[in-house]
Design brief:
alpha/beta, Rossmann fold, Dehydroquinate synthase-like, alpha domain, seven-stranded mixed β-sheet, 11 strands
Length: 369
């Protein structure tokens, strides 16, 4: 079972191929882009797991392949690591030219780094995504966001540079830790809440198969999420409107990450808490019922994602939110569900709304209605 989703962007449209056991198709897809040579960019962990198989798949179809790896981890998504990638790339010159392909093999960090390399080296190279985490499968692999972190904040240096193709082999998810799987599942729940109530039903009906990473269910799950992301990106490539809905759970979530510490809470955990708070805010405004809030909380909990967290200070969360890059004219903007499966952006968020929603995340106050 394999599916193809088309990301429609005019002359820059591309296909996302999704299924089990597809890594061997990497060379065929690369050759289909009209390239004869490639640079595979992977972190040290993924390089050890899948680097050789990826190179074999490329060379089997006549596409030359060289591997450049970098130390794993978000802490290495910075200017220093980027400089080393440029050095490695330019050591291959004069062979490397604009006819070469950059292949990102790994999670979101590898995609960001490889994509930014492709966007900036030689004023732009073709590139291809081959994600190896669920979070990258359903989020970062589609949309063309690339970039690196700076001491002043995350993802402050970057560019929109759409890939030329995406290959998602769901079998690669079998080596993920439970925590990494949960990170991706948080994004899947987010997509369901903002765009597809039927996806909520699918998630609830296949909890055990998804947690067991069964091929057909994971192919269906990733496909439905990529379809959502592709539709949003096709309609709003650079976040001027509808694409902002993808920030549901992230405004409070990012503030929680900052408050708690990036080394103490995973991104997916913070987003889950942000979604729980956002749903509580939506219920407080009469958009959704309390039962819908509990439905979301139960689903998150079933995927080992938190819906409560100790020692969250609503006032500090609000203060941190003032510095969010989505603030406009001093006004905090948040995405909230108006019904399950549909969302909207609101710019009338008050400190009291946030404090009450955050208070509901504390274990001692998170009681069911």
């Amino acid at each position: 079972m394999a599916n193809t989703v088309r990301v429609e962007l005019g002359s820059r449209s591309y296909d996302v191929r999704i299924g089990a056991g597809l890594l061997g198709e990497l060379g065929r897809m690369a050759a289909g882009l009209g390239v004869a040579n490639s640079i595979l960019v992977a972190d040290s962990n993924v390089s050890n797991l899948y680097g050789e198989a990826a190179i074999d798949a490329l060379t089997a179809q006549g596409v030359g392949a060289r591997l450049i790896d970098f130390p794993a981890g978000e802490a290495n998504k910075n200017l220093a690591t980027m400089a080393r990638l440029y050095d490695s790339l330019f050591e291959i010159r004069p062979q490397v030219d604009r006819g070469w392909l950059i292949v990102a093999l790994g999670g979101g960090v590898a995609g960001d780094m490889a994509g930014f390399l492709a966007a900036t080296a030689l004023r732009g190279l073709k590139w291809m995504q081959c994600p190896t985490t669920l979070l990258a499968d359903v989020d970062a692999s589609v949309g063309g966001k690339t970039g690196i972190d700076h001491a002043a904040g995350k993802n402050l240096i970057g560019a929109f540079h759409q890939p030329n193709a995406v290959l998602i082999d769901v079998d690669l998810l079998k080596t993920l830790s439970e925590a990494e799987l949960a990170n991706g599942l948080a994004e899947c729940v987010k997509h369901a809440i903002i765009r597809d109530a039927g996806l909520l039903d699918f998630l609830e009906d296949h909890i055990q198969a998804i947690r067991a990473r069964q091929g057909d269910e994971m192919t269906e799950l990733v496909t439905r999420n990529v379809q959502i992301k592709a539709a949003v990106v096709s309609a709003d490539e650079k976040e001027s409107g509808e694409r902002a809905h993808l920030n549901f759970g992230h405004t409070i979530g990012h503030a929680i990450e900052t408050l708690v510490g990036y080394d103490k809470i995973a991104h997916g955990q913070a987003v889950a808490l942000g979604m729980a708070a956002g749903c509580r805010m939506a219920a407080g405004r009469g958009f959704i019922e309390d039962e819908a809030v509990e439905r979301v909380r139960d689903l998150l909990a079933s995927f080992a994602l938190p819906v409560t967290w100790k020692d969250l200070d609503g006032e500090r969360i609000w203060e941190i939110m003032q510095h969010d890059k989505k603030v406009r004219d001093g006004q905090v903007r948040m995405v909230l569900p108006v019904v399950l499966g549909q969302a909207a952006v609101f710019d009338d968020i008050t400190p009291e709304m946030v404090r009450e929603a955050v208070a509901a995340l504390r274990p001692e106050t998170a009681v069911r209605k």
